């Protein structure tokens, strides 16, 4: 690991044992995150995002594998890792009756900071996170968005080089989400903090992250910039509407020939660039195609379909979304993924879990849920049921054109 590398993980794996059955939460995670990068970890419920974060933040010992985080080995020097990182887990850490500023001062004291340093830093963070007017308000009275901003301030009080955020905007309305992200980006700009964030929100990963890791079933299945992922995997999406199902049927052959002159086979359900058209409308009067250079293909399609007696009634061309990427990779839409029974089940039974197979002993306080005491950076093992479930509300990126 060089000075330019903030996280290196090799073969990081976590298995849980639930009622004698093995749950492969994370399998062979290899990761290199450069200093200053903003990386988004994207995936459906139960993909293994939080477990990965909890291993990297020393809250959960891996079953096997190694990681060096902020210059220190998670297994042999977890305390040093914790000193250098901030971790903001799911659910709010700020839930007591202390005033906002006092909460920050206590947090600084827990990190062993001097009073003067803590006061200075608290003042800076209150300003930069727009919390100054709320400094004397009890934490309990804050709104969800204000609490999340306070969480971030608490995670940053000791000026960590690396900030882990586990679904920071889940449950916030779109305006609060946008506001929160503005703060995260500002802080990063000002302090060069490396940010590693998990999210369900495709639009967030798309807009804000320099790099997107897509995780599914405990494995990283893609790792690139959002735009590269979209251009290499998804192409452009064209949706054509027809007056009748007969027209749509006639159009399929023409569309396949025009959009896929090479005759490539499709890649997965979403189709890669050059895939055969896929009808996604129940009434059969629409075709959705994923093609290279949609802006060039669309006019040709319109002409050819007209000539073939299958005139197009409506046409849309859109850039692919990360959901198209996920669909192409897995055959499933990330949007459609709800809280899986398995995921909800296992989390709800955290107390029945025999923790981990083959623990490295890195953390004596390995939690059975995602709850963390941010004051000490150690796990508290609060009931998992108190963690909010993510139902992906308010996702705003363009919708799939399918019914
Ligand atoms: N303490 C635990 N005991 C047993 N299984 C667990 C435990 N924590 C997580 N799991 C299981 O490990 C898998 C990965 O869970 P994890 O929470 O890491 O996923 P996630 O991608 O963060 O999901 P979410 O987006 O819902 O937070 C899931 O199958 C989950 O049920």
Automatic annotation (TrEMBL):
Bias (Low complexity) ranges: 355-403
Organism domain of life: Bacteria
InterPro entries registered for this protein in UniProt: AAA+_ATPase, ABC_transporter-like_ATP-bd, ABC_transporter-like_CS, ABC_transporter_ATP-binding, P-loop_NTPase
Region (Disordered): 253-281, 336-403
Protein's membrane topology: Peripheral membrane protein
Keywords: Antibiotic resistance, ATP-binding, Nucleotide-binding, Transport
Gene Ontology molecular function terms on file: ATP binding
PROSITE patterns noted in UniProt: ABC_TRANSPORTER_1, ABC_TRANSPORTER_2
Biased composition (Basic and acidic residues): 336-352
Places the protein is found: Cell membrane
Location of the ABC transporter domain: 7-242
Family per similarity comment: Belongs to the ABC transporter superfamily.
Record's protein name: ATP-binding cassette domain-containing protein
């Amino acid at each position: 690991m060089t000075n330019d590398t903030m996280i290196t993980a090799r073969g990081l794996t976590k298995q849980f044992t639930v009622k004698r059955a093995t749950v492969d939460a994370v399998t062979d995670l290899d990761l290199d995150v450069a200093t200053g990068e903003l990386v988004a970890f994207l995936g459906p419920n139960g993909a293994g995002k939080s477990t990965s974060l909890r291993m990297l933040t020393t809250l959960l010992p891996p079953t096997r594998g190694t990681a060096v985080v902020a210059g220190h080995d998670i297994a042999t020097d977890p305390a040093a890792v914790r000193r250098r990182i901030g971790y903001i887990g799911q659910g709010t850490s700020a839930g007591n009756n202390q005033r906002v500023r006092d909460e920050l001062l206590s947090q600084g004291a827990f990190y062993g900071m001097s009073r003067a340093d803590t006061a200075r830093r608290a003042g800076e963070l209150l300003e930069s996170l727009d919390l100054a007017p709320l400094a004397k308000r009890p934490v309990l009275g804050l709104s969800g968005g204000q609490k999340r901003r306070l969480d971030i301030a608490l995670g940053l009080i000791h000026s960590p080089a690396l900030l882990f955020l586990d679904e920071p905007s889940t449950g916030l309305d779109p305006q609060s989400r946008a506001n929160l992200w503005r703060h995260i980006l500002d802080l990063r700009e000002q302090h060069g903090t490396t940010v590693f964030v998990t999210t369900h929100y495709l639009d967030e990963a798309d807009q804000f992250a320099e790099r997107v890791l897509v995780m599914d079933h405990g494995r990283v299945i893609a790792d690139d910039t959002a735009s590269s992922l979209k251009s290499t995997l998804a192409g452009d999406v064209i949706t054509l509407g027809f007056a009748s199902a007969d027209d749509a049927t006639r159009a399929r052959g023409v569309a396949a020939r025009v959009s896929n002159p090479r005759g490539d086979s499709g890649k997965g359900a979403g189709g890669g660039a050059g895939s055969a058209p896929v009808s996604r409308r129940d009434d059969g009067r629409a075709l959705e195609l994923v093609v290279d250079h949609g802006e060039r293909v669309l006019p040709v399609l319109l002409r050819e379909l007209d000539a073939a007696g299958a005139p197009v009634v409506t046409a849309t061309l859109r850039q692919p979304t990360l959901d198209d990427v996920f669909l192409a990779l897995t055959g499933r839409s990330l949007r459609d993924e709800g809280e899986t029974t398995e995921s909800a089940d296992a989390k709800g039974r955290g107390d029945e879990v025999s923790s981990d197979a083959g623990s490295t002993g890195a953390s004596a306080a390995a939690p059975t849920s995602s709850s963390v005491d941010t004051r000490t950076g150690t796990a508290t093992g609060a009931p998992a049921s108190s963690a909010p479930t993510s139902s992906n509300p308010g996702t705003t990126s363009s919708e799939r054109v399918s019914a």
